[in-house]
Amino acid sequence: MADGERTAFGDLLRPIADPPVRPDLISLSASATAAASAAVDPPHGSRAEADRLGASLKELADADARIVFVGDPGLTDPRLALPGNAVRTAKYSFLTFIPRNLFEQFRRLAYVYFLAIAVLNQLPQLAVFGRGASVLPLAFVLLVTAVKDAYEDWRRHRSDRVENGRAAAVLDPAGSGQFRSRRWKDLRVGEVIKVLADESIPCDMVLLATSDPTGVAYVQTINLDGESNLKTRYAKQETMSRLPNITAGSITTLIRCETPNRNIYGFHANLEVDGKRVSLGASNIILRGCELKNTAWAIGVAVYTGTETKVMLNSSGATSKRSRLETHMNRETLLLSAILITLCSAVSICNGIWLAIHRDELELSQYFRKRDYSGGDEKYYNYYGIAMQVFFIFLMAVIVFQIMIPISLYISMELVRLGQAYFMIRDKNLYDESSNSRFQCRALNINEDLGQIRYVFSDKTGTLTENKMVFQCASIRGIDYSEGKDPSPNGSDVYYVVVGDQFWRPKMLVKTDPKLVRLLRSEGETQEGKHARDFFLALAACNTIVPLIVGTPDPKQKLIDYQGESPDEQALVYAAAAYGYVLIERTSGHIVIDVLGDRQRFNVLGLHEFDSDRKRMSVIIGCPDRTVRLFVKGADSSMFGVLEKSVDLDIIRATETNLHAYSSVGLRTLVVGMRELSRNDFEEWHSDYENASTALYGRGNLLRAVASRVENNLQILGASGIEDKLQQGVPEAIESLRQAGIRVWVLTGDKQETAISIGYSCKLLTSEMTHIVINSNSEASCRKSLEDAIAISSKFVAISSRAQNTIIATGSARVPLALIIDGTSLVHILETELEEKLFKIATVCDVVLCCRVAPLQKAGVVALIKKRTEDMTLAIGDGANDVSMIQMADVGIGISGQEGRQAVMASDFSMGQFRFLVPLLLVHGHWNYQRIAYMILYNFYRNAVFVFIMFWYVLYTAYTLTTAITEWSSVLYSVLYTALPTVVVGILDKDLSRRTLLKYPKLYGTGQREERYNLKLFILTMMDAIWQSLVVFFIPYLAYRDTTVDGSSLGDLWTLAVVTLVNIHLAMDVFRWNWITHLSIWGSIAVAVMCVILIDSIWSLPGYWAIYHIMKTGLFWLCLLGIFAAGMIPRFTMKALTEYFMPNDIQISRELEKFGNFNDFTGTEISMSTFSETQPGFIR
Amino acid sequence: MNSSSGSAAGPSSGSGDGSAPRRNSKRPKYSKFTQQELPACKPILTPKWVISVFTLVGVIFVPIGIAALMASNNVVEIVDRYDTECIPANMTGDKVAYIQNDDIIKTCTRNLTVPKDMDQPIYVYYQLDNFYQNHRRYVKSRNDAQLKDADQANKTSGCDPEKTTKDGSPIVPCGLIAWSLFNDTYNFTLGNKNLSVNKNGISWKSDRDHKFGKDVFPKNFQNGILRGGASLDSNKPLNEQEDLIVWMRTAALPTFRKLYGKIHQDLKANDIIMVTLENNYNTYSFNGKKKLVLSTSSWLGGKNDFLGIAYLTIGGLCFFLATAFTVVYLVKPRKLGDPSYLSWNRNPSGH
Question: If we measure between CA atoms, which residue out of A847, A876, A887 comes closest to residue A755?
């Protein structure tokens, strides 16, 4: 009987490789593997959460499912016209290029303005410019852009062709069972495709079989989501076993799957084979763009092809943001439009008055002569009455003065930002050696926002810390083992596994506690030793890590590389290996662990993944001694609830003490528990589990319920402490940011203790700070704690302000405040009226630390600031849980680190290390802001000067909009004569050197206070523009009054004067002259002179030879000289006065840069060198 | 200015070299350009520079101003407005009728006194006021192709409203500009002797050579109902019609002078020149003024004090600013590049 029982039980113990046990869940790879770790770091749960949502909301109804007949593309869903597998990333075809490209280009408002003006000019009554001159600039810009687009599209066409032409092995539908080579673009849904190792997967396929007998296939998804570790996918046992029948077409197999969507971490389908229904999840599908690895072959059936594949559905451009400066610029553009309309109205009204006054003279005056006598009817020529004339003049004035709105500015700004991005990407200080990643600009139009940041919201894990987890210490049954010693790579204490004549050792070495090692190896069966062994068995077994054996140069030595998505799990498995529990093999049904030299096989009977409700994961293991054990690991908060309290209360207490100690030194903690399952327990669970996992509806919830039922009455094994190392240079970076007047808020999913200890270690918190802690779980208590906090803070502020008034000499700032708030409290505060109070208190505090926050709360906190202030916010993070925050903030930065690339994909900029934020903001941000701000002002000024000169002249032409300046010159003015220098200066000019900016982080305030671009500066610049235009116009006017001078000659003088003047103006403001600056500024003047000469060498133009004549006269040169002097004197004087008598910080620092070494040699040098010692990370 | 090239190179550490880069390392290649460390000069407006610049401008501008004023003073100019004087007293009520009536003889005599000695060449100009030669209708009304090339005589586009005759044959030269050619004439006598006016070379050589054809002859010119101005000798090619060429260089401003001719003879102070003129040109219809101008010239052109005064003003202002800066600099000196001036060093302590 006992025997029989054992058999029955044993039967159940058979490794179960298919659905019942291998959880369908969606996400072995994505969410669940992260699961275990997520137990530590709740943010990981976000994906699982999203999946659960997807799973419960989207159960498959036949109506909206896609039905795929395996091996028979003809039958597959005739209702739908399915796309082939050809992909088109190219936008245009040969025929559609011109219309589509034009359409795309004219989506920019600036071009429409351009076009409207050009069209207006084509009306004969309004033709101010000749046809060519009016259309040329627009045509030029359109052509350049079109050529650029065409080239890019041609490259896309080419890569499409290559991609579509790749070969795939497709099962011959005739039933021969052979695989034939076919091009990718000819693949159809329903076809059976074979993929070999290291090949790319041509379309989204459901796995039918793999070379692995248990149906495992490993894929690399680096092209899909950038994660480089291998992910496991499974073929169903049902299809594995029937593969010959399926390939022969002798049985009908059909798959019902959801309609195409872009969720790469979810898939919902079921498979019907031989009348049996099997459910399929994301672990059964391999996606286009992945590569098959470590698997000889895999056979699958295409379910989504071409544009419907998940990778294609996910390829969409980044959202575009608009920078703060550009928003302001648009405000000033409106002002300029108002000026433009004023000018035009003035001209047209004056013209109307002039016509009215001279009404009677128009018939006979030689220069007007209203009538055309040639027709015999003596009709009016081009005269439609005063009202119409006024209207026409208005429109013509718009055409003539059009460049008041600096259209070219938009194009130059794009160029400048491109150049700035180039320099940011190429900056070696923003290159991360460890991850071999450069800085990336994903958004091209917010470079200058980097110079105006006031709030930085930072994630902790992976952003401030490296997210490279290292096992530090363990508490086993309440006994603390934290005396770890660093291993020497070849020392005797490193654990090896001997396989044949080879030595395998874990790739990463972990420090081990000798006491614990002795305990594990002790022969005697002490209670202590047994617990320790169970603990490490749990660490080695309770995970989803895949061991890979990697060769080394020494043929006898191999390394075991643990691949997995959660760094915490990796750390734990490496730790177990270091202590002698080496995980060496994982298939879908069992794992092999080398237990202190004895290789043992454990059947994996079940696995409950992590989810954010339970905050734990568990496995059910059939051990070699025929016992069935449940191992659970999870966050302490969730684990203490499911522990058996009646027995081990002392141990639990001791463990809690240890946990507190661990987290207070910044370690991440996990609690491990175990329960031995009786046969009844197991059977009960097994049937529940089977039912739940084959359920068609609500599977996720059912499975969760099953897990909760079994994870109970656990015996505590112990707890682990894992160190999450701070990234290099983080404390210094935070200090610099703080000095720069940037407030750093840390938002983390970690526990409060962990968060605070990390806060201390990265110098965010200091010992003299007063902490205000808000931990409440109801709205009322939140309100109370907020009010208390406001009271405290206002007291401190009051004290400090009094202190400042009375004892100035001390110079002591007020007591710094730190606000620490947790996610539970935020639930009650965000999006209620309490937000206002939180905002009030948070803005008073120097540091804000939010712990235990969910991803959406992160965004909520960012929104809290963004909605209420004008201040710029920046969010930086590395994980999927930071995406919402990154998208919410004005500037989003992704850390391209350990946690995948979702954050990077959502970000505007990405980089490898947190400390790069300092050079990025303080140096590049400052420069970018300064450059773009100056460039905008200069462009406004430059075009305004020109327009005003034309306007003054119009006053002397009976208001008829004649221009003395040739139409070609006025067209080329902003495109050619003066365009290049602004672009060059916008890209290259630096007000201060990198070293100075890093040495005095406070200089960053320039951008925060908007000192380089504001309404006052705009108005001053415009006044300067008017003065300069008066000088340029009236000096020649008065000098040439009552002379024989002709319009063309005077026009040439004005052209050369204004071009040179605006270039001199720019030259005066350039901070740093290198050869490129010299070349562009003086070159532009030369080009303008040459163009004027060239234009005057065309005999058919009225100005033929005028420039040669006027250049021979002394008056011309004296006028030019006088214009330069008189034009620049006000600006030069103002500049000299302010720079000398009211110097701003930038000016002082520039002088320091230049003269500091002479005046103040020793002091500067010393502080410089200490700085470079303490901050080696970013001084270089 | 204070050039200190190379100082921008900054504290480049040796991190770029040293360890050999990994094979597919994305480490940006080091160059002074990509690291924005190109050698550069960083000008700063120190007081020394500011004062020197102002002084230099002053030193340059004041002498030029003086020279320009002297040049202008040496020019002798006689300006005589005659359009009002040359109307018979009985016709002053309706000047337009007077000028349009071809039967009235328009000859008129004016006596001009030479105020100072005038050295040859003496330029004879006519000056029109309030004549908008830069009016949009007017400047556009010409066809340059037609003027240059006899084969293009039919090309009259742009010449509206003076394109063709009533029967549609093209006018050469067409357009309002040519049509309105000035047609007053002047004869000068000094005592009993005729003062000859040289009308050759009054136009630009470039215009005669390249803009007006030597085989293009006037056709259908000034035959319309409304007479605009002078008629042209239809046997003389356009490139010899210098009055037309001068006229067609349209003036920049509504008050302008056009060269009529040159007198190659010195005149003495108090000489009285008698001018016999044909007052043909209709400026009465638009209240324009006609003036006859005799003027010598200097290296700077005609009589105009503006530039000299402007230069003196600018130069004087610069000297003043230089002095002011010096004074203020001495009264309230500031040490350049003193970190204690940085706002965060200044504010909390307030020394």
Answer: A847
Which of chain B's residues have a Cβ under 8 Å away from the Cβ of A1166? Answer: none
A1043, A1049, A1099: residue with CB nearest B301:
A1043
Question: Packing angle between helix A97-105 and helix A131-164, nearest 10 degrees?
Answer: 110
* Residue A108 structure tokens: 């920019």
- Please report the DSSP string for A602-625 in residue order: EEEEEEE---TTT-EEEEEEE-TT
From residue A610, alpha-carbon distances to A420, A613, A632, A633 in Å are 44, 9, 10, 9
Q: Across the interface, do B53 and A1132 touch by the CB < 8 Å criterion? A: yes
B102 touches chain A (CB under 8 A): no
| Model ipTM value | 0.92
Is the separation of the CB atoms in A1106 and A1096 below 8 Å? yes
Cross-chain Cβ contact B259/A1071 below 8 Å: no
Strand order in the sheet with A192-196: A179-183, A167-171, A192-196, A297-304, A204-210, A285-286
CB A452 within 8 A of CB A324: yes
Nearest Cα residue in chain A from B24:
A436
Least reliable range by pLDDT among A96-105, A780-789, A809-818, A1099-1108: A809-818
Amino acid at site A208: L
* DSSP 3-state of A441: strand
Q: Which residue of B has its CA nearest to A1135?
A: B45
- pLDDT computed for residue B349 by the predictor: 42
Q: Cite the DSSP H helix spans in A740-854.
A: 752-761, 779-806, 823-829, 834-844
Comparing A19-33, A1009-1023, A1047-1061, which segment has the lowest mean pLDDT? A19-33
B333 contact A CB<8A = no
Burial of A63 by CB count in 10 Å (0-12 exposed, 13-18 middle, 19+ buried)?
Answer: exposed
List the one residue out of A1125, A957, A1137 whose CA is nearest residue A1027. Answer: A1125
Measured CA to CA in angstroms, residue A290 lies from A204, A219, A286, A523, A674 at distances of: 9, 6, 7, 48, 37
Instruction: List, for residues A384-430, the tens digit of each pLDDT value.
Output: 888 999 999 999 999 899 889 887 888 888 889 889 999 999 999 99
For residue B232, CA distances in Å to B182, B223, B238, B277 come to: 11, 11, 9, 19
- The three state secondary structure string of A819-839 is EEEEHHHHHHHCCCCHHHHHH
Rounded to whole angstroms, the Cα distance separating A693 from A688 reads 8
Query: Do A250 and A202 form a contact (C-beta atoms < 8 A)?
Result: no
DSSP state of A1003: G
Cβ contacts of B68 on chain A, cutoff 8 Å:
1118
Amino acid of residue A517: V
Q: Do B337 and A960 touch (CB under 8 A)?
A: no
Q: Does residue A1027 belong to the interface with chain B, where contact is any CB pair within 8 Å?
A: no
User: Chain A: residue nearest B259 by CA?
Assistant: A1044
Nearest of B43, B1, B61 to residue B321 by alpha carbon? B61
List A residues 450-469 in contact with B (Cβ-Cβ < 8 A). Answer: none
Q: What is the pLDDT of residues A1098-1149, one digit of tens each?
A: 988 888 999 999 999 999 999 999 999 999 999 999 999 998 888 888 999 9
Please list every residue in chain B whose beta carbon sits closer than 8 Å to the beta carbon of residue A1139: 44-45
| Backbone phi and psi for residue A236, each to the nearest 5 degrees, phi listed first | -75, 145
- C-alpha torsion B111→B114→B118→B120, nearest 10: 10
Do residues A1122 and B60 touch, judged by C-beta distance below 8 A? Answer: no
List the 893-952 stretch of A: residues with Cβ below 8 A of B. Answer: 927
Contacts B333 to A, Cβ<8 Å: none
pTM value is: 0.80
Residues of A catalogued as catalytic: 459
Which residues in chain B are closer than 8 Å to A1115, comparing Cβ atoms?
A: 300-301, 307
Backbone φ/ψ region at A69: left (φ over 0), alpha (ψ -120 to 50), beta: beta
